[in-house]
Specification:
Blueprint (H helix, E strand, L loop, with lengths): L2 H8 L7 H9 L3 H12 L3 H15 L6 E7 L5 H14 L4 E7 L7 H9 L1 H4 L4 E7 L9 H12 L4 E7 L3 H6 L5 E6 L11 H7 L2 E4 L7 H17 L10 E4 L8 H17 L2 H27 L2 H15 L5 H14 L2
Parallel strand pairs: 1-4, 1-5, 2-3, 2-4, 5-6, 6-7
Helix pairs in contact: 2-3, 2-4, 3-4, 3-8, 14-15
The structure holds guanosine-5'-triphosphate (GTP) and magnesium ion (MG).
Guanosine-5'-triphosphate binds next to α5.
Length: 340
């Protein structure tokens, strides 16, 4: 065996440096894009620093991709829908990144693979980049890190970015700060859910697609459509230049997929015409800035040694009604600021 082979076999494994990762991403190297997303998801401080350097460099590359959120209850058919619409998007000569956020991944490690299997055809396409992402404990799986993954995908030049997220309420507000358009997927016959938690999700939806309207579901689907249309009319307007529609779809037969994509394309045209897209993105960035800042403050607060030292006794005093929650919080805040 020649010595250079031995040398290269023994060479320690090095993580690529920031320059290599950034130029890799910008040259469409999926492996580098994947590694960068892994870095931003990492909780290790040394990874965080590197991830932020990569992100800031990627931000400098201005691109304009269409950012679309696909949300709906577990099993509503999101992944299958993305697979069907993804094929259509690619057939129009566009490239596509899918960030599939898997809220159950911390319970069953197998479901990440499951999602890739559900988007089997797309996964095999060179025009598509599919990235299942762990939820890291966030409701619905969306976290501020999803935005960072979007930025990286944009730098890699993807025309369309789809974010799959489970609609459970609170997470929608966050996804609404990251994407331009939200498509809500609902199962036929789920109109009664409109009374409860789903209302919040309806408010941020830009269109509703009723899924799986194939086979014997078509009768129920027509009723659901009327119910959703009525519900949408009752909600406050999200964009003055946009009217929300309800579509009957089936990822199995392809029904309604073209119409939904057409609707999404019309949305972007309307937003561009009314110059609202850029304004909305600015607002989103501002809101994300403060979301991240609040999170940092919280983390700093609760890991502060003076706070930890006083926490239990203050909690007890509040529980035994010796002091009010207000003065308890104030005392803890004083313990926090005193240290500085
Ligand atoms: N009949 C029919 N079944 C469908 C359709 N779309 C999806 N399904 C089935 O519904 C089940 C759930 O589909 P998924 O696409 O995995 O749903 P999901 O919303 O991504 O699910 P989670 O990611 O687990 O929340 C699968 O068994 C699919 O085969 C459809 O258009 N028609
Ligand atoms: Mg899915």
């Amino acid at each position: 065996m020649n010595s250079s082979i031995i040398h290269s076999r023994l060479k320690p494994y090095h993580d690529p440096d920031v320059d290599t990762v950034v130029s890799g991403i910008m040259n469409g190297d999926r492996h580098m894009l994947s590694r960068a997303i892994t870095l931003i998801e990492s909780l290790k401080p040394e990874h965080e620093k590197k991830a932020h350097e990569i992100l800031d460099r990627c931000l400098a590359k201005k691109t304009s991709s269409l950012r679309i959120g696909i949300t709906g209850a577990p099993g509503a058919g999101k992944s299958t829908f993305i697979e069907a619409m993804g094929e259509l998007i690619i057939s129009q000569g566009l490239t596509l990144a899918v960030l599939a956020i898997d809220p159950s991944s911390h319970q069953s490690k197998g479901s990440i693979l499951g999602d890739k299997a559900r988007m089997e055809k797309l996964t095999a396409r060179k025009e598509a980049f599919i990235r299942p992402t762990a939820s890291s404990g966030y409701l619905g799986g969306t976290s501020p890190k999803t935005h960072e993954a979007i930025v990286l995908c944009e730098a890699a030049g993807y025309d369309v970015i789809l974010v799959e997220t489970v609609g459970v309420g609170q997470s929608e507000v966050l996804v609404d700060t990251m994407v331009d358009f939200i498509l809500l997927l609902m199962l036929p016959g789920s109109g009664d859910e409109l009374q409860g938690i789903k209302r919040g999700i309806m408010e941020i939806a830009d269109a509703v697609a009723i899924t799986k309207t194939d086979g014997d579901q078509s009768g129920i689907a027509a009723i659901s459509r009327a119910e959703f249309e009525a519900a949408l009319r009752m909600l406050p307007i999200k964009h003055p230049a946009w009217k929300r529609d309800v579509f009957l779809t089936s990822a199995l037969t392809g029904k309604g997929i073209t119409e939904v994509w057409q609707n999404i394309s019309e949305f972007f045209a309307a937003m561009q015409e009314s110059h609202t897209l850029e304004k909305r993105r600015q607002k989103q960035l501002k809101s994300l800035l403060y979301t991240v800042l609040e999170e940092m403050l919280k983390k700093e607060f609760f890991s502060n040694s003076s706070v930890i030292a006083t926490k239990e006794s203050i909690e007890q005093q509040v529980l035994s009604a010796e002091i009010s929650p207000f003065s308890g919080a104030k005392t803890m805040m004083e313990a926090f600021t005193r240290r500085r």
